[in-house]
Amino acid sequence: MWIKVCGTTNLDDAKLAVELGANALGFIFAPSPRRVSPFEASKITAQVDPKVETIGVFINQAPSVILDTARRAGISGVQLHGEEDPGSVRNLLALALREKTPLKVYKAVHMSTIDNSFAWDAESSKMLAGMVLDSGTPIQRGGTGRTFDWNEAAPLVRVLSRRTKIIIAGGLNAQNVTRAISLFEPYGLDVVSGVESEPGKKDPAKLRAFFEAVHEAVQRR
């Protein structure tokens, strides 16, 4: 099970997450109480095992800005958390290729806003390293501490799972992650508020409990 611990703001939290088994660390460069600068992120990414993905979170930024930030922060991937469409991702990947900057792109989708105009069909989803299904809204993009309606979303998640790797986010914690794994059988999980003592600061006990719950749930599958 791929696990991303997002909202990383300091090296101690990063080290503990990796020690517990995190496959990825998230750094928020968009407006948020967990926001870090590229320089602050670079001091952390420089000391993280290269095997661990380091993913920057952006909202409706130009490809050139995203790529410049990625270089300065030393991150290996980006998570687009705004209204970015397949064309935006295509432009970003083309720019990264031209400038010889390897970059994975994940797209966050706000489950409350999916409608018939949903742009990510099977073909365009192939560009993505994964799709993050979150409970955020256009007002509060992520870190809400709330889940989306899992029962209502389950049929759609099964469809999306045939298109790309699905990562469940939004309100995950040690108490509910077992159900999320059982219901969605996702590729991965993205956790923030459920393992914090306050925005931007991880709670070691909550973080350990989350990883223990995930490992137990995976072993039972």
TrEMBL record:
One of its GO terms (molecular function) is phosphoribosylanthranilate isomerase activity. CDD domains: PRAI (cd00405). Pfam families: PRAI. Keywords: Amino-acid biosynthesis, Aromatic amino acid biosynthesis, Isomerase, Tryptophan biosynthesis. Belongs to the TrpF family. PANTHER family: N-(5'-PHOSPHORIBOSYL)ANTHRANILATE ISOMERASE (PTHR42894). Residues 4-212 form the N-(5'phosphoribosyl) anthranilate isomerase (PRAI) domain. One of its GO terms (biological process) is L-tryptophan biosynthetic process. It comes from the Bacteria. Its EC number is 5.3.1.24. This is N-(5'-phosphoribosyl)anthranilate isomerase. It catalyses: N-(5-phospho-beta-D-ribosyl)anthranilate = 1-(2-carboxyphenylamino)-1-deoxy-D-ribulose 5-phosphate. The gene is trpF. The keyword Amino-acid biosynthesis applies. It is an enzyme of class 5 (isomerase). It comes from Koribacter versatilis (strain Ellin345). Pathway: Amino-acid biosynthesis; L-tryptophan biosynthesis; L-tryptophan from chorismate: step 3/5.
